[in-house]
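Q: I have 307 residues here and want to know how they pack in 3D. Can you give me a structure?
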Amino acid sequence: MKIIIALGGNALIKKGEKETYSNLLRNIKKTCSSIVPLINKNKIVITHGNGPEIGNLLLQNEIARKKVPEMPLDVLNAESEGLIGYLLQEQLSNELHKRKMHKTVATLLTEVLVSKNDKAFRNPTKFIGPFYTKKQAEKLKNKFLIKKDSNRGYRRVVPSPKPIKIIEGSLINDLVDSGHVVIAAGGGGIPVVSKNKRLSGVKCVIDKDLASSVLGKEIKADLLLILTDVDKVYLNYGKKNQNGLSRINLKDARRYIKEGHFAAGSMGPKIEAAIDFLKSGGKKVLITNINNVKNSLKGKGGTVITR
């Protein structure tokens, strides 16, 4: 089976943790230990989020701009792909070696085509960087565009256009079909636009789940496994009447989106990605957290979405 594993930010940095090297490394080790059993009999592509990392890189650029020239957001996306991809590749390779599984892991800097006319550039919704309290957000609102991130706090937002095409899609497919484990489209990939058959980067961050769906279509993946910070999808999330969903179909998913159950910057893109993946030939989507992967794959947890 060909599987896209989309790692959310919680698989890298837990809420409330500082994004130190030691915390990042510890979480990545745990994540690799959880997903490596899937590699033995399947063809695997791993994607990952970069919300905390890209936000911190952006802050570093802005704080140090008087001494070090700033880099645009698309270049910072590439930095985050290398930063996270390297650690995932290193620890996954170590885990495979420990279990005597002879697989090569490769990280591929991935460009993702978007439209320069996407309405997202006029309405930023992608959360990046650290969480702020309401009081902190008030102080920063004249410096950054900040919105409430579900019931988790306040965060900075940037444009997040829809991914259209994975530029290196055929190369990723060749690598995974040859038996390699591929880490690709990190942080949603490096956003680029095309003009006169020339590519150029744009200042935005693509949602990694939507990019994972596009990649899944291009390599004809069977399963899209979305690992996030909740055990399953919930209606009325964070409220007294929240209701966990174990199994839904495309019709249900579309109806819940229409009813406004899923926020644009959190669960919304995951459900949209699931719908897009299934419409385009994917067999199944599973949404859960890193701790429930094993049980969820056995049908004992998570949210399964099918056609």
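Q: Anything worth noting?
A: The CA atoms of residues 74 and 203 lie 5 Å apart. The mean pLDDT is 92.
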